[in-house]
């Protein structure tokens, strides 16, 4: 089980996707293992032990966000990433910090619901295929009128099947199981999902605001059988899932296992002795974040949620501001501090080949769709690493993201010309090819390639 991984095993898993930054990996590995250790303690001791939050300092593109994201995936924990600059002091227009916890609970609900859907999927598939077979034999004429339901009317009842129709349904269902009717078209009644509205930066569903008092609107859609099956399976899963149990488990996971990644925390650092100006708002945001990190209770539409045992990982470049520019109370809530280093030539060389999601493998997979078998000579990889490193030195240091810029320029001609009915072709990227297509890329302004 992922939660029982030792710190060394956690670091080994992170090494599959992230190059270097051993100090940061060790810090998050220990924090994760301490969660497992805490869970094994008696309740009276467990309640006294809170997570040791982590502050990561380092330039952009060196792995801060990726470490936190991979960590959450590794332990299958609710995870949310937020930019501290999105929030404003209470009393000003902008998102309030409580939305961090609400977003985390929503992520937890989605995670637990997906797990519950997996457990009932087999049963839901059987029920959906039965409904689908009946709809093919007895097509529904029109969707239920929600106004009638609102004033006490009843939804249309499924008519009783005769023995002959029952036999037809069984025959059609057998064809569905064999996949013989996937491209046939059928009309089905589906829920008409209302559009969300934006309120203070948050997306809100009007139906949820009304507490489910309004009946659900439906409409008729003409779709292929394969899509109708997916729609009906989702509906049947919704009926089989106990949402009260899902909500209860999701809140428990958010409270005990939730991970919040606060990015760009250095952008809200800074205090003003004059008592006015932009620094006042920055300090206000810090003071609003402080109770969430310290441990408080936030009201959500699913009920109150405690933040006492959530793990907070903050990150920032701290090029201009310093950690000491944060208010002392907030500094004290991040006792574990790690500094991530800028990427070296050797790091870039490793990033090109070692991670399972290496950018070279990504482009090989993309171009293979158009029958281009891409390969890279060892000298070409050295040249690419050198180009990315020098470009970061000469211009803004954007870390590993520089490789995206370099590769787009390097493979632009191949990507443009590939496609159509061309036969399989082998293309090897050599050092000469890199020199020809990048040239003095490190000295040129590559910012025009960055969105």
How are the elements arranged and paired?
Layout: H1 7-15, H2 22-39, H3 43-46, E1 54-57, H4 64-75, E2 79-83, H5 98-137, H6 146-150, H7 163-177, E3 185-191, E4 197-199, E5 202-204, H8 206-209, E6 218-224, H9 225-240, H10 243-257, E7 259-263, H11 278-294, E8 297-300, E9 303-306, E10 311-316, H12 328-332, E11 336-339, H13 345-351, H14 359-368, E12 372-376, H15 378-394, H16 402-410, H17 412-417, E13 425-429, H18 431-438
Overall shape = flat
**Biggest sheet, spatial arrangement of strands:** 2-7-10-1-11
Which stretches are low in confidence, meaning pLDDT under 50 for 5 or more residues running?
272-280, 442-451
- The portion of residues assigned to helices is 40-55%
Class by SSE composition = alpha/beta
- Continuous helix count: 18
Strand content range: 5-15%
Q: What does the average pLDDT come to?
A: 80
N- to C-terminal distance? 40 Å
Largest sheet: 5 strands, parallel
How many distinct beta strands?
13
Instruction: Work out the radius of gyration.
Output: 28 Å
What does this structure look like?
The chain has helices at about 5-15, 20-40, 45, 65-75, 100-135, 145-150, 165-175, 205-210, 225-240, 245-255, 280-295, 330, 345-350, 360-370, 380-395, 400-410, 410-415, 430-440; strands spanning about 55, 80-85, 185-190, 195-200, 200-205, 220-225, 260-265, 295-300, 305, 310-315, 335-340, 370-375, 425-430. The two termini are about 40 Å apart. The longest helix has about 40 residues, at about 100-135. A hairpin with a 2-residue loop joins strand 8 (about 295-300) and strand 9. About 50% of the residues lie in helices and about 15% in strands.
């Amino acid at each position: 089980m992922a939660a029982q991984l030792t710190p060394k095993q956690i670091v080994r898993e992170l090494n599959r996707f992230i190059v270097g930054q051993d100090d940061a990996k060790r810090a998050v590995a220990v924090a994760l293992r301490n969660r497992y250790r805490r869970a094994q303690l008696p309740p009276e001791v467990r309640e006294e032990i809170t997570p040791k939050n982590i502050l990561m300092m380092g330039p952009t593109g060196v792995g801060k966000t990726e470490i936190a994201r991979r960590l959450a995936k590794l332990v299958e924990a609710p995870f949310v990433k937020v930019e501290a600059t999105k929030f404003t002091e209470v009393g000003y227009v902008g998102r309030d910090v409580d939305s961090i916890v609400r977003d985390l609970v929503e992520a937890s609900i989605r995670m637990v619901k997906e797990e519950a859907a997996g457990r009932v999927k087999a049963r839901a598939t059987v029920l959906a295929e039965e409904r689908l077979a009946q709809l093919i034999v007895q097509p529904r004429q029109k969707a239920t009128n929600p106004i009638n339901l609102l004033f006490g009317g009843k939804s249309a009842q499924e008519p009783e099947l005769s023995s002959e129709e029952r036999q037809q349904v069984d025959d059609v269902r057998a064809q569905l199981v064999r996949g013989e009717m996937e491209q046939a078209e059928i009309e089905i009644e589906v829920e008409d999902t209302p559009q969300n509205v934006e309120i203070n930066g948050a997306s809100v569903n009007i139906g949820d605001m009304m507490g489910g008092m309004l009946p659900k609107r439906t409409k008729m859609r003409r779709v292929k059988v394969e899509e109708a099956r997916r729609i009906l399976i989702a509906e049947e899963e919704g009926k089989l899932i106990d949402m009260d149990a899902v909500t209860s488990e999701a809140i428990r996971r958010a409270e005990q296992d939730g991970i919040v990644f606060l990015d760009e925390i250095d952008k809200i650092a800074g205090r003003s002795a004059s008592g006015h100006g932009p620094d006042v708002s920055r300090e206000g945001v810090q003071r609003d974040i402080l109770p969430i990190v310290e441990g408080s209770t936030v009201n959500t539409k699913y009920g109150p949620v405690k933040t006492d045992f959530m793990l907070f990982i903050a990150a920032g470049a701290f090029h201009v501001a310093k950690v000491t520019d944060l208010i002392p109370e907030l500094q004290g809530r991040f006792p574990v501090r790690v500094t991530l280093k800028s990427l070296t030539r050797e790091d870039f060389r490793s990033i090109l080949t070692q991670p399972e999601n290496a950018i070279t493998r990504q482009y090989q997979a993309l171009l293979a769709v158009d029958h281009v078998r891409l390969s890279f000579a060892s000298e070409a990889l050295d040249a690419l690493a050198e180009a990315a490193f020098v470009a970061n030195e000469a211009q803004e240091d954007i870390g590993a993201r520089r490789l995206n810029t370099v590769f787009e320029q390097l493979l632009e001609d191949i990507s443009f010309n590939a496609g159509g009915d061309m036969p399989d072709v082998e293309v090897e990227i050599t050092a000469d090819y890199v020199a020809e297509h990048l040239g003095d890329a490190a000295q040129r302004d590559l910012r025009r390639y960055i969105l």
